[in-house]
């Protein structure tokens, strides 16, 4: 892990077989752990996660101040509801992460953007830039696995946090995404159990 990047944690709800979809999540416990554990300064989100969750985010109470930055890896410029995301009540500001191959943005779009990488967003460069922002020490990754997999492959994740649900997932996604399953050793740093058979596992990525 380069020293000029922030502490990066990926927190995912998973089934016993490592899936991130196709089972009922305990959202309340998932978000309670988010709110009490890392106190992120920035949220790094996959575009597919943002697009799938936009419908539940659009009735926000306005930007959260102080609150974390929302940075979305959006190399194809598919995310459009930036103002609504900023006003969702979870973040103070938004940042679009693009690459040089990103299609032209609509004229008049007022979204801060960072262009890093040629064909895809350069995740290491993006994290370095986010980490250089004042007050950003901790970044939480929000993804169903594909972004997590790319970050793991690049050695860019410090901690993997899995809230394991006692079911087999019926979905297609695993928490390590489309990259090969993690070969790096994971060192257990904490664990806990909760009502309903949930097990929380926190691993440091070696
Ligand atoms: N169980 C959980 O904890 C949990 C958490 C969050 C979301 N979810 C669910 O998971 C689903 C979405 O997750 P997902 O895993 O399909 O997608 P995702 O991780 O949200 O999005 C994929 C991201 O990976 C980026 N990416 C892929 N390859 C890359 C590369 N080589 N270099 C740089 N960036 C790359 C994509 O960028 P581009 O846009 O530039 O292609 C995109 O931002 C939704 O259904 C959501 O509800 C579950």
Automatic annotation (TrEMBL):
Recorded GO MF terms: 5-amino-6-(5-phosphoribosylamino)uracil reductase activity
A Gene Ontology BP annotation from the UniProt entry: riboflavin biosynthetic process
Pathway the protein contributes to: Cofactor biosynthesis; riboflavin biosynthesis
Segments forming domain Bacterial bifunctional deaminase-reductase C-terminal: 6-198
UniProt keyword Protease, yes or no: no
Pfam families for this protein: RibD_C (PF01872)
Alphabetical UniProt keywords: NADP, Oxidoreductase
Record's protein name: Pyrimidine reductase
Native organism taxonomy: Bacteria, Bacillati, Actinomycetota, Actinomycetes, Streptosporangiales
């Amino acid at each position: 892990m380069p020293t000029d990047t922030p502490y990066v944690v990926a927190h995912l709800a998973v089934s016993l077989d490592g899936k991130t979809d196709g089972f009922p999540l305990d959202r309340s416990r998932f978000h309670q752990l988010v709110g009490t554990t890392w106190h992120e300064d920035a949220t790094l989100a996959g575009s597919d996660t943002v697009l799938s969750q936009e419908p539940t985010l659009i009735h926000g109470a306005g930007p959260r101040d102080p609150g974390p930055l929302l940075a979305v890896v959006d190399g194809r410029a598919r995310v459009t509801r930036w103002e609504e995301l900023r006003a969702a009540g979870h973040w103070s500001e938004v940042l679009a992460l693009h690459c040089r191959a990103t299609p032209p943005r609509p004229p008049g779009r007022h979204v801060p953007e960072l262009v890093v990488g040629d064909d895809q967003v350069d995740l290491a460069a993006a994290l370095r830039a986010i980490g250089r922002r004042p007050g950003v020490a901790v970044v939480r990754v929000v993804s169903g696995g594909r972004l997590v997999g790319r970050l793991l492959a690049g050695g860019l994740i410090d901690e993997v946090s899995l809230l394991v649900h006692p079911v087999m997932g019926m979905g297609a996604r695993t928490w390590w995404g489309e990259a090969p399953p993690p070969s790096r050793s994971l060192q257990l740093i904490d664990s806990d159990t909760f009502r309903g058979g949930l097990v929380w596992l926190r691993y440091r990525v070696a």
